[in-house]
Amino acid sequence: MKTDNKPWFWIPLLNFASGLPYAIIISVSVIMYKNLGISNEDIGVYTSLLYLPWVVKPLWSPLIELVGTKRKWFLSMQLLISIAFLLVGFAIPFNGFFILSLAIFWVAAFASASNDIATDGFYLLVLPEDKQSFFIGIRSTFYRLSMLAGNGLVVLFAGYLEHKYGDNTKAWSYTMICVGLLMTFITAYNFIFTPKNEINAVADTKEKHQNQNFITVFISFFKKKQIGLILAFILVFRLGESQLLKMLTPFLLDGKELGGMGLDTEAVGIIYGTFGVGALTLGGILGGIAISKQSLTKWMFPMFLTMHLPIIGFILLAFFHPTSIYYIYIVVILEQFGYGFGFTAFMMYLIHVAEGESKTAHYALATGFMALGMMLPGMLSGYIQKYLGYDNFFVWVLIATIPGLILSRFLTFPKDFGKKSEEV
Fold first, then answer.
1. Phi/psi at 261 (nearest 5 deg)?
2. Which terminal Cβ of the chain has fewer Cβ within 10 Å, N or C?
3. What span, in angstroms and rounded, lies between the C-alpha atoms of 63 and 66?
4. What is the pLDDT of residues 304-314, one digit of tens each?
5. Is 243 within 8 Å of 401 (Cβ atoms)?
């Protein structure tokens, strides 16, 4: 079977197409609605509900596992997302745009969650197992880069148009239309460059899948060895990170009288859009290389420590409030590098959890529990921060990483899992 399907040509943009819609729907929509005059209460309630498809996506993952090919699914879903963003752009100038755009975003959210399922399954089916550990770092890096592009470049573009036209409605209408056109280009690229040899992988297991149904797919997941420990680990591993991600930008933007660092939006954008991106990319690539060279067993715990220890830098910033911005640059660079490096190990472990038949559906189940572990603590993070203050909040975030680290020591998987085969 041919395995040289030029993964560098399709893995980056295929995963970029997973992260960008998520960023637009979950994060950028908040800024858009705020600038278009929607109340904070409505923004909080309705944009939080847009997160739900990623939490419950395992409910329809068996459909994607058993019907059609993953390639057809993700191409169809990316095209639907492209159309949805275009429609949001055209809907913004009309009365009642809020309800109309929310309805369209809901469609896009379900399409995006389905795109994630199909993309994950495609990766597991098409890429040889001995290459998955290396490219898992590339996957997570480009996913995160797409998030930074959405939260950074798209917002900066909208701000530029707001100043140019003096009309927020026109600015955001044009912005969303441009995002829709960008997604259309990415979909066309993925149509051309993603390999078509998935059909061979599907054919090999077609007979087995004919005997499967929704119930057996779910039951087989919960029959996995150590499943109780696995689910506990997935749910608590990102307990600290989920809260950090929600409160990090407010900490950098809030004035020092509120315990923040007093930066402006442009400064935050520069920090994350330049040095942060470079550190994240380097960390993700090195993480993939490390696992492929010496296995997940060798690197899991050191990588998890690398991911969590940079929180100490934010504790120091919150307590001492240094006047030089270079201290902030150093902490953010370390945090982004640690995230790129350490999260690679976590995603590689989820690939192990999904091993076996129905790996697409099982991977979706694992990432669904991961999303739940992100959503619930994130919803409470603002209240916790307000009660503790930024300084003690970051101490709490560091403490919250300990349960995941402890549980990780009891996980079992093949000693050489993720290590690249020496065969040429």
1. -100, -10
2. C
3. 5
4. 999 999 999 99
5. no
